[in-house]
Design brief:
This protein is of the alpha/beta class. Helices cover 39% and strands 15% of the residues. The two termini are 27 Å apart.
């Protein structure tokens, strides 16, 4: 395939990220499969990114995530500086066939404003689409710019102007799904796990209370704001409470963390993360928000761990109730479902992941969308001629 894609990962974390990093992990999973299909990838990221690509450029030497929670007037220039570098690249070269953008809000706004002579753009929406009503509710990016969601439910809640630019959705994937149906089956422990950044939308406080009520050990694995280890958060002192996720943890979650029945282990990565997830009796998602993509959901299935979750967002698309997980609309019922999760078959979860959630499936879907976006972007030019 003769196609050169500028993959705009943004300035916040390296690719792959050092531990947690949802969007950057998606890109790190997608790019190798795109290159296997013959797509040339030019990565716009930070210089510390180590993902093998055909070409890389950067504005910042390392990820700027540490600045993300600062007041807007202190941090607003970071993403703009990165996008300025992307625009300069697009102005000075003619070999980019398409831009695949992953930078929230400012990526879509900047690339849409470049005009008809710029390359076509596919902007992937990784987040809650209610966040930017002024942008999404009034978007008019012409035929050159299209968006895709990471689930059908995410796009169904999008403003009409954004839906008008949509070319569909692509579910997330995980390398763990490759051969998951043939991998050795690890021994299961008696604990449940919530894997992800600790914040109100993920509902770790709900999970901690449930664990205490039904007596199921619970592991909370993920960062609190910029703090990836319990000792780092402890050393930060009271100043850390300026971060809203830190305040949520101290006020709502920490009172239930006793180090025995409920433990916070911080960010886990690599084999440690996989072993912890594979050994759990269930992955718990006590969601308070409409989860758009669910990376941790597909990772859990690939490792043979059933999902117990509030039926919100993408969860009903990813989980078959009674086969690969247990879903409910009643928060109080989650405790009973957690107790019943051990009855589900881990092999069913892994078979589902091996069919639906491999990187190859995701990459082929994106290649199809690339071609659709490019064909659509050419229509106005042909009519004008």
């Amino acid at each position: 395939m003769s196609l050169t894609v500028l993959m705009n990962a943004g300035p916040w974390l390296s690719v792959p990220p050092p531990g947690y990093g949802g969007i950057e992990n998606v890109i790190a999973t997608l790019v190798p499969e795109l290159r296997r299909l013959g797509v040339k990838v030019v990565l716009a990221s930070v210089d510390s990114s180590t993902l093998p690509v055909d070409e890389k450029f950067s504005v910042f030497p390392d990820g700027q995530f540490h600045a993300l929670q600062r007041p807007y007037n202190q941090v607003c220039g970071v993403s703009q500086a990165h996008l300025n570098g992307v625009v300069r690249q697009l102005h000075t070269r003619d070999d980019i066939d398409l831009v695949h953008d992953h930078v929230e809000a400012v990526g879509l706004a900047t690339l849409s404003a470049m005009g008809p002579d710029a390359p076509p753009v596919l902007h992937t929406l990784h987040w809650d689409l209610a966040k930017h009503p002024e942008l999404y509710g009034n978007l008019d990016a012409g035929e050159r710019v299209r968006v895709n969601g990471v689930s059908a439910s995410q796009l169904a809640r999008a403003p009409r102007a954004l839906q008008a630019h949509s070319v569909g959705h692509v579910h997330l994937s995980t390398p763990l799904a490759v051969g998951a149906d043939r991998a050795p089956r690890p021994e299961k422990g008696d604990y449940a796990i919530i894997l992800g950044r600790i914040n109100p939308g993920k509902g770790q406080d709900v999970g901690a209370r449930l664990a205490q009520r039904v007596g199921v050990p619970l592991v909370l694995a993920g960062p609190v704001g910029p703090y990836h280890r319990p000792e780092d958060l402890a050393a930060a002192g009271d100043e850390a409470r300026q971060n809203p996720d830190v305040r949520f943890f101290y006020d709502e979650v920490a009172p239930h963390v006793d180090g025995e029945l409920v433990r916070w282990v911080g960010t886990v990565a690599g084999q440690e993360r996989d072993d912890l997830l594979a050994g759990a009796k269930a992955s718990l998602f006590p969601l308070r928000w409409e989860e758009p993509g669910g990376t941790a959901v597909v990772e859990s299935l690939a490792l043979g761990t059933p999902v117990v979750a509030t039926a919100r967002g993408c969860l009903p698309e990813l989980i078959e109730h009674g086969r690969t997980g247990l879903l409910t609309g009643d928060e109080d019922e989650l405790g009973d479902l957690l107790l019943a999760a051990g009855l589900l078959d881990a092999d069913e979860c892994r078979r589902e992941a091996a069919v639906r959630f491999t990187p190859a499936v995701m990459a082929q879907r994106y290649v199809d969308l690339y071609e659709r976006v490019r064909r659509g972007a050419r229509v106005p030019q042909l009519q004008a001629a």
